[in-house]
Amino acid sequence: MLVPIRWLKEYTPVDMPVNEWVDGMVLSGTNLETVDYWDKDIENVVVGKILSIDPHPNADKLVVCQVECGNGPVQIVTGANNMKVGDKVAVALDGAVVPGPLHGQPKVEGGVKITAGKLRDVQSNGMMCGCAELGFPDKIVPMRDKEGLWLLDDECFVPGTPIVEALGIDLPTVDFEITPNRPDCLSMIGIARESAATFGGSFKYPETKCQKVAPEKSADYIQVEIKKPELCSRYCCRVIKDIKIEQSPWWMQQRLMLAGMRPINNIVDITNYVMLEYGQPLHAFDIRTVKGGKIIVDTAKKGDKFTTLDGVERELSDTTLMINDTQGPLAIAGIMGGLDSEIAPDTNMVLVESANFNGDSIRKSSNELHHRTEASGRFEKGIDPNLAKDACDRFCYLVEQLGAGVVLDGDVDVYPNPAKATTLKVRVSRINHVLGIDIPGQQMLDYLRGLEMQAELDGDIITVTPPTVRQDLNIEEDYVEEVARMYGYDKLPVTIPKTSDTAGISYTQGIRNNAKTALIGMGFDEFQTYSFVSPKAVDKINIKADSNMRQFVKLINPLGEETSVMRTCILPNMLEVLSTNYNRKNGPVRGFELGNTFFNTGLGDDGKGTKILPEERDSLCLACYGEDESFYTIKGVVVELLSVLGIKDVDFEQLTDTNTFHPGRCALLRKDGLCIGIIGEVHPEVTGNYGIDARVYAAEIYFSRVVDLASVDHRYTPLPKYPAMVRDFAMVVDEKITVGELEKAIKKHTSELLESVKLFDVYRGAPILPGQKSLAFSLVYRRSDRTLKEEEVNELNSKMLIALKDEFNAVLREM
């Protein structure tokens, strides 16, 4: 909420330095965004009046102007063409500073310095300024002045007056961050109310009563019917005749611009002015376009088309609330008016609408139409319906003050169920207990009354009734907060909570921390990426069409296509990170992410009224690239990681039916038959999709399953007292037989004495026949209670070799 301090002073005094005032507002609960000083970097810029305009003798697109700046005419050469003799403009004299920067002028700290010089051999002693040169952004500049010079039409502009003084921009604009629970502060009156309560100052409401009204009544011209009272709780309107469409006076334009809105014309400006003042959006219709003299508030029919003020034709749903006449729609309620009912230059009679619409309905329609406005944003957060009449009357008062029309008597106000404030009893002792302070009930009473609440004290009980504009006050704790912020958050004592609870982490968190520590110790960096991804992400890693990884949880209101679904795997995110590093010549890179994945397991209702939620699973993804990386390095990392988590004897099952990984360098991880992950070299086609011209090795581990299998119990095992016996042998087997199958068989037939088995050589080539390979293993035998005998080891080893020959046709090879 942009709050121009000069405008704020209309309602409450601000008789202290702005920085002190801002600090006080922050400490009372109104969060600060920025403070904008409009007069910063403006020096020696004054109001000037153009006395003459002559052609430049040496340039067709330049003119030579004589400008009265208070101390005699000043000659200025300009390329602007939107001015005429008699216009008033902002003139930067020789040596002036403007916010800039400007082409061809030297840069100085805090702005651009303007110096006299010659343009095509003609002396120019300054520069006439447009809005941009004075630091006003394009979005708030009056349409007429967007191109060329800023023409200062108002009589208040006197030649020679410093421009900061003339424009009234010597005081800053404060931008407050208004939390969703305080929509009443999205208005000048709301901020003024907070300021008065914070600093104990006076507070006055704007004048709303017209001095003169026409004898005709608004009800003679318009009727209102609300067909959906649950979506429109109040509709108030008045009629103004003899409308004069013209530019608003400067004081109104200035306030609108400093509050972030572009001046349009007097009628539109007054609606925006009142919206900023009260927080109540208004809309003005050309009454000629209201057919049948009747306003009907009702929802649209599904598929209806409607063209809004911005010229866009929009398709409506059957939940979109519309403002209609007897023949068709006039506006989308609370969002935007229609192109056919807008105020035109020849408009003579206006109907001003001040209504209250359901916030949820407006939010839904705004999302469906992909269109948000200042008005819809306010309705979405909730507006007090009791503001509608005051805002409508304020509009009419300003129309009268500006001479923009003649206000008709009375209004048409349909308000079926008037909103009433809720009275609540709060305890003085409870407030003191929660805040850890000890202040008397009378002081609390003063705080609450300062916020325009009706409050009475009876012993320990305060009976309080807030104004209906304070829709955030519903329970006793809300009033605890009100007392706390008025007392001053900075004054509350700092204490340590008294509790017998001890801090700790859950079992799962412990497993996660152990995994992260192990991976970081092995040289991996932790990455963190978004869970919201594009549905096309799985296409880049060649996931099959029937894969469950395409069972996305879709967002109802995504920021865009790139973040429209929840991820089902982390590998695409990981490859995006590796791609960024690879293309920036960073390497080698090792990274991991331990995060959530989400699966649509049939969202809906189970038939018993219970909602079926998305399935959320923990997943761990590792990835790396570099000269020293291979399938075996990442396999070693995974084995060591699982070992740290107490998971041993993991089987690696070859996987060929995959398009994501290299079919010959990929395996599933299984523990006791349960698949706990996949590991391998990423398919070259996939790495190509990410612009990586290097081998990438990755593993995605289903961490939720790992947590179930993990064991954090570490038992002490003493060093062996008795020596081991080692047996090395090589066997020739068929190429299709995997090392894992052989290792499993070796363990099966030697389990009583075997301490470890390790593959130490793989050989292909002569004299080994094609289609076969030689695998060399080293077996360590040991007993913990005695020394092994040569005979028993040889006997066990021989039985194991015979079993391998029977099961795999494995032939012992001489070493």
Report on the structure:
- The protein is 25% helix and 29% strand.
- The chain contains 20 helices and 44 strands.
- The strands form 11 sheets. Strands 3, 4, 5, 6, 7, 8 and 11 form a 7-stranded antiparallel sheet that branches. Strands 29-33-36-40-39-38-37 form a 7-stranded mixed sheet, sandwiched between helices. Strands 13, 15, 16, 23, 24 and 25 form a 6-stranded mixed sheet that branches.
- Helix 6 (266-278) packs antiparallel against helix 9, helix 7 (359-369) crosses helix 8 (374-381) and helix 19 (739-750) crosses helix 20 (790-808).
Helix count from the secondary structure assignment: 20
Query: What's the average pLDDT?
Result: 91
- β-strand number: 44
User: Which strand-content bin applies to the residues?
Assistant: 25-35%
CA distance, first residue to last residue: 84 Å
* Largest β-sheet summary: 7 strands, antiparallel
Which stretches are poorly predicted, pLDDT < 50 over at least 5 residues?
A: none
Radius of gyration: 39 Å
